Amino acid sequence: MVSSFALNGDLTAVKSGDVTGRVASVYSEVQRHRIDNPLPLPSVLLNPFKIVDGPASSAAGNPEEIKKLFPNLFGQPSTMLVPNSTDTLPSDKKLKIGVVLSGGQAPGGHNVISGLFDYLNDRVKGSVLYGFRGGPAGIMKCKYIELTPEYIHPYRNQGGFDMICSGRDKIETPEQFKQAEETALKLDLDGLVVIGGDDSNTNACLLAENFRAKNIKTRVIGCPKTIDGDLKSKEVPASFGFDTACKIYAEMIGNVMIDARSTGKYYHFVRLMGRAASHITLECALQTHPNITVIGEEVAAKKLTLKNVTDYIVDVICKRSELNYNYGVILIPEGLIDFIPEVQQLIAELNEILAHDTVDEGGLWKKKLTNQSLQLFELLPQAIQEQLLLERDPHGNVQVAKIETEKMLIQMVETELEKRKQEGKYKGEFKGQSHFFGYEGRCGLPTNFDARYCYALGYGAGVLLHSGKTGLISSVGNLAAPVEEWTVGGTALTSLMDVERRHGKFKPVIKKAMVELDGAPFKKFASMRDEWALKNRYVSPGPIQFSGPGSDASNHTLLLELGARA
Amino acid sequence: MVSSFALNGDLTAVKSGDVTGRVASVYSEVQRHRIDNPLPLPSVLLNPFKIVDGPASSAAGNPEEIKKLFPNLFGQPSTMLVPNSTDTLPSDKKLKIGVVLSGGQAPGGHNVISGLFDYLNDRVKGSVLYGFRGGPAGIMKCKYIELTPEYIHPYRNQGGFDMICSGRDKIETPEQFKQAEETALKLDLDGLVVIGGDDSNTNACLLAENFRAKNIKTRVIGCPKTIDGDLKSKEVPASFGFDTACKIYAEMIGNVMIDARSTGKYYHFVRLMGRAASHITLECALQTHPNITVIGEEVAAKKLTLKNVTDYIVDVICKRSELNYNYGVILIPEGLIDFIPEVQQLIAELNEILAHDTVDEGGLWKKKLTNQSLQLFELLPQAIQEQLLLERDPHGNVQVAKIETEKMLIQMVETELEKRKQEGKYKGEFKGQSHFFGYEGRCGLPTNFDARYCYALGYGAGVLLHSGKTGLISSVGNLAAPVEEWTVGGTALTSLMDVERRHGKFKPVIKKAMVELDGAPFKKFASMRDEWALKNRYVSPGPIQFSGPGSDASNHTLLLELGARA
């Protein structure tokens, strides 16, 4: 019986009894004990409650356009659970609910599903929960398993998305919406919970709108997932997974810091996952106090060039060298290059040239570059130049994502330091070590915070569906307080939306929440960074603890943002 | 007052009151709580004991040569503490002791020093402990600080070596021995504790021999340190740091495994620190059950070629693909290349050619390679070929250490899979992701095991010096039992030694303990690996816990070796 199921197999409509998911007998001691770790719920969910709607909502931007795109849902109020003398939802009407994981892994996804399952089991007995397999494609192809208590059990408090797996497909075309409708009708779905990031929640809202327009009873509720931390707002204070991922990275950074200080001879350049926003890098900096932290949003706002960034790093290294510190730790967001305007310009020019011309060895092709782009190109280390010219994606475009930014920076810093040495401005020794922390953080065992937050999100999503809501995102608030005091409700997805013009059409988007330079987390960092640069204030958060000291702390970004709001 | 001291500064003979080491006020919650975590001692150390010598010892090999090299120390018995009705050591004679950290960082070093300090404080009041700064160079240059309770306090149970820092110098030449003697005399040292790996402990023994030969009273005791786990024997069952480092790497590997299973589309190639022996890789495999694990010692014993290793990996990938698993996790020891005889041969030939000839673009130089080396060279990915030709160390030698083995293997596997695809033997999709886990593991907060083991090693080293022993390595045994039942003693360093012939001279060495193919850990792995290859038996150990479930487990290697010995 000990066997894993083929994740890519062609299982359709199997009951979970027929497939064998995780088997706790091959679990580590920590994994095993996490399964039965009790999950506290906000007290509003433990006692009779009623659901109270707020005022009509608008949109984050361009409300007229959002209204046109969501004629049935626009203006919906957000909603909140409040204690009541008796329960107000029917306990006798069984529900058929589907759940899907969408996009990249984030610690806690399994607990959202567990929370949803437990709500149905606790309050709407006889209900059925279907897990769509492999992401939104599972909805379109009607690939699912029926989730049972036995099947779900070994996934409780565990990392990963492998209970039902995820996928990156979108439900976009009329045919795809049609497929989703067929599945909803075939399974007689009362509701669907979409666990995903900004794109997936936009998609969830389009699905909700479509079902309502077609008079299909299936309601759709979203849940905020992404380790990147860029799906958040006043009412949705955090996306799940961010807390765990940052703590995993911060553990490693802290270890590397102590190593740097003990060895005294390496500069560690640590690239951190997070292509669009630099929240992870900022949070890791607040947890560990590195000597240098590059925040993409600041680079973009100040229109810094790659040379500016290099010079900043080199300046700090030179000053530290005068203090006899020839070591340090530098954090860089994965998406740094995307934030530098001149790099975007160079890439665009290269794509154009490579599409139409041949790259001659003599370098005549370079004459087609603008002056600024040529200067930048010549500044880049040779390996990066070659990478830009040689490695292209299937559309023939330069693959920026493949550039190992930390290694590129090490080389550029080396070159600049060599120059300063010859000018007599630097006397130290520089040795760079590169790191990329990414995949390690997406599937770790969720922290107590993420485990509890996700459980409440899932449980709350169950309430929202049970009460007939659609087009909302499950919202759990007051997160700085103990779990009992957390608030539970739903936020109108349309209220988070704006439009973008693409190919001449308006497209609804939930804007990614970027690092705000006047936000509390960045301001705190900015007020400390000069001290961190020259004096060593390294903090080593250590490994995530599940009990005892340090096990109940949440992250700095969340607390600072909540504090600034309070 | 919150300030770190300049580790590379020229502080000589400062009292620790004058320098500011770590300041717990910038500690994380977990760091802070670890400081005061009580450290249990073996009960033999808590009650009156006497010291009992065993029989005369010999050497691990070539005892006649070892006897010539250590005329004063050869044959010394190992020694063991046993309970006694009264204490047998004088409590009124104050001691002056030095301690030094030598070589690479390993979690627990600070606790060895704390244990030594506490022994002196508990049992030989009024004694002084000097910490030599920056490794053996600190002894030679007489750079030290006097350790005080206040100075040591924030380092208790903390990772890193930054309390006094480490270094890689050796005390080898007559002049260097002379310098060490001068320091010993100047500080009136009764004893010296050398915390290091195989080389450093050999050095410690030479120092002990030299002091005795010169009638200098300074005794020398070693302590077994290395995350690589290759300093061990029957009487020294483990080197400290291995437990913590492996658990840190295994946490990351476990996370990556869940990610691989959740995503279903990546093969993660994980290179693990450990250049000489593959203990770390083997231990991580036992903790996590990867699909493929390459053990250097097996590659060497079976005289495998790089092509053999590639084919083995590709065979498993093809078989997994038939089972619909297009993902997996592969562990590779950092030192893999050094274990492959044909690679050594190629490197030797390249060094010879590069020293005398120019490498022409047309490739005529390749004719100077033997057939076997030429074939291997042509098999290597282009980037690796270039690296071999271009990057050389200051002596003009090819820099094998810089080769990123995991990336090289990904490219070779890609090429071979492409070939099999064209032959119709493989239909899957392959995407490789590379990782190197190294620096993250050297300075983590020590596990409970390493924290306690190190504390006992240091405390025991104090006993050995107090009782007048020299040339022993602190030995704590019975490690599978609870701490109270651990044994404490010292093992004659000469008994661990053999000789190697270098430049026509015999040189004493403590032979590195390699992975033994008929040892219990490898046999256990070998009995499981076929199952792990095709079925997925991933185990995710999770983050190191300091309290609660999982916090008291030791590692598989140690338990299997102790079990096989029992």
TrEMBL record, chains A, B:
A GO BP entry: photosynthesis
Required cofactor(s): Mg(2+)
Active site residues of this protein: 228
Broad class of the protein's primary localization: cytoplasm
Listed pathway(s): Carbohydrate degradation; glycolysis; D-glyceraldehyde 3-phosphate and glycerone phosphate from D-glucose: step 3/4
Record-annotated site: Important for catalytic activity: 225
Cellular component, GO, one term: cytosol
Domain Phosphofructokinase: start-end pairs: 96-359
Alphabetical keyword list: Allosteric enzyme, Cytoplasm, Glycolysis, Kinase, Magnesium, Metal-binding, Transferase
Entries under InterPro entries matching the protein: ATP_PFK, PfpB_PPi_PFK, Phosphofructokinase_dom, PKF_sf
Subcellular location as annotated: Cytoplasm
Residues the record lists as binding substrate: 226-228, 265-266, 273-275, 334, 439-442
Site annotation Important for catalytic activity and substrate specificity: residues: 199
Enzyme class, broadest EC rank: transferase
Residues that bind Mg(2+): 198
Binding residues for diphosphate: 104
Family stated for the protein in its record: Belongs to the phosphofructokinase type A (PFKA) family. PPi-dependent PFK group II subfamily. Clade 'Long' sub-subfamily.
Function as written in the Swiss-Prot or TrEMBL entry: Catalytic subunit of pyrophosphate--fructose 6-phosphate 1-phosphotransferase. Catalyzes the phosphorylation of D-fructose 6-phosphate, the first committing step of glycolysis. Uses inorganic phosphate (PPi) as phosphoryl donor instead of ATP like common ATP-dependent phosphofructokinases (ATP-PFKs), which renders the reaction reversible, and can thus function both in glycolysis and gluconeogenesis.
Database matches in PANTHER family: PYROPHOSPHATE--FRUCTOSE 6-PHOSPHATE 1-PHOSPHOTRANSFERASE, PYROPHOSPHATE--FRUCTOSE 6-PHOSPHATE 1-PHOSPHOTRANSFERASE SUBUNIT BETA 1
HAMAP family: Phosphofructokinase_II_Long
The protein, known as: Pyrophosphate--fructose 6-phosphate 1-phosphotransferase subunit beta
Organism: Turnera subulata
